[in-house]
């Protein structure tokens, strides 16, 4: 959300089966069975931790399957000569695995896989049944030599989901196992198939598949095009295409991820940036995606498993790298020429949509992880709150409650003197009202980050407020509690606060919206020689009308800023601007937050996504609102009263729409996913308009259920004024 959009909205507010492509000839026997086994997608398991994994199910299947006598189902000759079976049955297999590094170690450590391989070695006929096993395919493909040419009469293809498979034109077979497996006698000569054979083209990379050795560029050739010279390698920003208009196929975000994971140096890159490194479980995930493409990626992301969450964490660290991968795959019919690939520029609509989809996936996985950990799942934690002592009562309850109760229990808000039951509505309003108190600049803990914006930051004068550190710890707990409970705050922070809460270091870019002139000065220093400015590692500070010089580092007064040390100077200036006078307060805010919300669970989110997570969006899309509204007891989209209602909503200004939303749901924020994600007492609950017979009464609401009871007013004018009166005067809960 841009600053101008946020400011305008803030002012109003303050007022996912793989398809196998076969050759012309199909082999007899178990095609259908093996295809079903390969393309079977495990049932989604969101919270059932005890459900068996695909590997466990496969292991059980192997154990239960009786050994088939060799004489009963003889293995076809073409399968007996397959590279995969010859690799599995090689005499020195276990010696080879013990010397094969991480891939061999993972193979030997997988008990189910080892039992499967041993059964195939004992009875070769079982290879026909298990040759398409996802577990076996993934394990074997880790040993292939991707730098070698495919064997003669073999071709590599991708299906529509981006899953790699191989065609053996000699035996008319298809396989998911790469034939370039190491065999002890090296009896197979790897040669490039002659280009005159129509089905023996050089490897074609489709749907955004990366060349195995070259990162970030795609080579696509016709059968008549000669292969490029072996010594030629193109730079990362160059792709091969035709001077004629190519046929373009859009590369989706999922295809970009698959392409990214197929980089030869992927594990090194992840180890450098991901704090947990490449553990065996993560390596299995990546190998699955490398081998099986987008279908594997979607299966993992929708499984709700720990693996899905770790995948989201890794992807979040490489968003820019993934987005930089060519957004279009160019299918070229002619002799290739070089063409520069754009890697910068503004975000396109498709890029924004991919980022939105990526965030939705992260959010879904995050909610599953929270549920698995038992957050906000057990009995109720009751807060008795007086509206006229909201801040004091809230502080008393939040700070005196056991942290484990704040994490594990659902809140039950009871406003004294009101007989409403909390099925979500009072809690939503509680956080809405509390955030307007705690983070209100009037009280001095926070201040607006600039005169023309409504984002807030910690006030540099907050140190003079009595017990300010306790209040900042309380504020941190409130932010953590709103995430745990699944509600929203009525406040937007600066990016630096969101980054601090997630234990992420600020960047120079974070200054742009806070102090544009200061940001531009530091950018100028970065891009130019600063020596003519005669700068030193000092800064002048003003406090209570007096100027003082502050050294950015020890002896800074005598250290000139030069071309060699200017990055250090920029770093110190950035820290000074962001931390001056608020370091202790920020640490207490972070402490309170981390006491309730484990920071490790937020590593997948960037600053803007944390903003959506805690405050939703101020943008009201009336079409989305209408689309996700339910009608009851005779009301329907074309009922005259409903037409009056939506006419009134369209006539309201944004402030009045937000007040109407707050009147019906208890909060004036819209979840990131839109109105379809409004929550009720026990999960998602749409905005609902119900029939209420008393035309003399004002509309009444049930915030726990996001429901407004709307009388059948006789005219638009009557409905407009009744609705306006209700949203301006109604602010208590009751039971009828």
TrEMBL record:
Residues 11-29 have a biased composition (Basic residues). The active site is at residue 704. Its EC number is 2.3.2.26. Residues 148-181 form the WW domain. The keyword Repeat applies. The keyword Phosphoprotein does not apply. Residues 193-205 have a biased composition (Low complexity). One of its GO terms (molecular function) is ubiquitin protein ligase activity. GO terms for biological process: protein ubiquitination; ubiquitin-dependent protein catabolic process. It is an enzyme of class 2 (transferase). Keywords: Repeat, Transferase, Ubl conjugation pathway. Residues 402-736 form the HECT domain. Pathway: Protein modification; protein ubiquitination. GO terms for cellular component: cytoplasm. Residues 1-76, 185-205, 218-247 are annotated as: Disordered. This is E3 ubiquitin-protein ligase. It catalyses: S-ubiquitinyl-[E2 ubiquitin-conjugating enzyme]-L-cysteine + [acceptor protein]-L-lysine = [E2 ubiquitin-conjugating enzyme]-L-cysteine + N(6)-ubiquitinyl-[acceptor protein]-L-lysine. The lineage of its organism: Eukaryota, Metazoa, Porifera, Demospongiae, Heteroscleromorpha.
